[in-house]
Structure formats: C-alpha cells, structure tokens
Write a structure and sequence with these properties.
Aminopeptidase, 24% helix, alpha+beta, disordered N terminus, 3 strands
C-alpha cells in the first residue's frame, strides 16, 4: 500500500501509506485492515493524494476479505480528522496513552 513515483510520473513521491491486516476469531472482532501510517507531503495536501492513498488501502483490504479499515490519529490532528470523516470514517473512541519510564 505505498504510493511510488510510478503513480505520479516525473514527480517526487507525494505521499505514502503503510498498513497491515489483522484477523481475529473472537466474537466481538471482525477481519479488518489497519492503516499504520498515512503521510502526504505538505505541498501535495488538499489535492487528492490522501484520498487516492485511502482508496488504494480500501481496495487492498477488500481484496483480502477485510470487512473494515481502521486507523488511529492523534487527538490534536483536527485537519486529519475532518479528512477521514469526509471519507466516511467514524470516531469510535478517544483514549489516553500512558507510559512510565523505568
């Protein structure tokens, strides 16, 4: 699920995505793909690059029998949240991340 120069001939790479599938046989969990990273170069934002990357990720997931795509986004990334919501994604929860240095 990476965007390469071949997607945009004669240009630098505009963005990339990385993901993985996670399958579970638990009753409360379905087969899903998780997008671990979606990065669009600053100069290519709001030009459709992210939408294309997300479409490819969703096609990739469907081809592997996944029934959903999930991703995580930092709570301070309001612009990214609006982008995902525009594509039909819904916020399922907000959580805090804890760490203790030893």
């Amino acid at each position: 699920m990476r965007a390469t120069r071949s997607m945009w001939p004669n240009r630098r790479r505009a963005g990339w995505s990385a993901g993985s599938t996670s399958r579970s046989h638990l009753i409360e969990s379905d087969s899903r793909a998780e997008i671990n990273a979606l990065v669009v170069e600053e100069g290519h934002r709001s030009r459709g690059t992210g939408r294309i990357l997300m479409q490819h990720a969703e096609q990739w997931a469907r081809a592997r029998g996944c029934s959903a795509v999930v991703l995580r986004s930092n709570v301070i990334r309001a612009r990214a949240h609006a982008f995902y919501e525009k594509l039909g994604y819904q916020t399922l929860k907000t959580q805090k991340y804890f760490r203790k240095n030893l």
